[in-house]
Amino acid sequence: VGAVNAVWYIVVYGSGAAALLAAADARLAAPMLVWFIGYLGMLRWFVPRMRDRSRRVSEARAQLTGRIVDSYTNIPTVKLFARARDEDRFVRDAVDEHTTVFRRQLRLITAFGITQALLNAMLMVGTGAIAVWLWSGGRIAVGAVAMALPMAWQITARAAWVAQSVTSIFENIGTVQDGMRSIAVPR
Fold first, then answer.
1. Are 115 and 42 in contact (CB under 8 A)?
2. Burial degree of 57 (CB within 10 A; 0-12, 13-18, 19+)
3. Three-class SS of residue 101?
4. DSSP 186
5. Rounded-to-integer distance, Cα 13 and Cα 43, Å
6. What is the DSSP letter of 82?
7. What are phi and psi of 186, to 5 degrees?
8. Would you call 137 helix, strand, or coil by DSSP?
9. pLDDT value at position 2?
10. 3-class state of residue 155 by DSSP
């Protein structure tokens, strides 16, 4: 619910901010419009991949947990038949698989964060540069500069929170989907 409210906040606040900036000078709204397009493109590219990788991490975690539980609950049998090395390898393979898919997920989350930070930096720098340029040329008042930068800052702050929420949601979706597959198995 919080993430949905934040998305609506970005849409409503961003539209209002772009309209106010465009009222001062249309060029002042350009960085925000470019940012919106970039932000939507970023979400469109990253979110499906985050969902898929989250599911893979959850499956690997379930596999690893199952192997550990299986090995340790059957430890008397393992010791009785001297199969400790085979069991260690069995668990190690699951650890390695989990580590591999988890690292892939972390790389994607890091790329997501870097992309968002770059978009936000471009919005702030672009808005500031255009505002100062227009002000120095006498095309806008100093009040428009004072209005433009906080508006851009507020958008980037809320967008960062939304992106963090999206990341958290998709990290947990894989776990929920895996649990639902286990629960939904017909008896």
1. yes
2. buried
3. helix
4. -
5. 19
6. T
7. -65, 145
8. coil
9. 63
10. helix
> Which letter, b or e, does each residue of 61-93 get, where b requires 16 or more Cβ atoms within 10 Å of its Cβ?
bbbbeebeeebeeeeeebeeeeeeeebeeebee
Per residue in 65-93, pLDDT tens?
A: 888 888 778 777 767 776 777 778 888 99
Q: Tokens 């393979």 — which residue?
A: 93
CA distance 144 to 184: 57
CA–CA separation, 123 and 172 (whole Å) = 30
**Number of residues that this document lists for the chain:** 187
In 3-state terms, what secondary structure has residue 56?
helix
Token duo for residue 168:
């958290």
Positive or negative: CA dihedral 14, 19, 23, 29? positive
In whole angstroms, give the CA distance from residue 90 to residue 64. 9
Q: For the chain of 187 residues, list the mean pLDDT of each consecutive stretch of 10.
A: 71 88 93 93 89 88 86 74 77 92 94 94 96 94 92 88 77 72 72
Please report the pLDDT score of residue 152 as a whole number.
Answer: 92
Q: Residue 82's pLDDT is what? A: 67
Q: Which residues 6+ apart lie within 8 Å of 35 measured at CB?
A: 119, 120, 122, 123, 126, 155
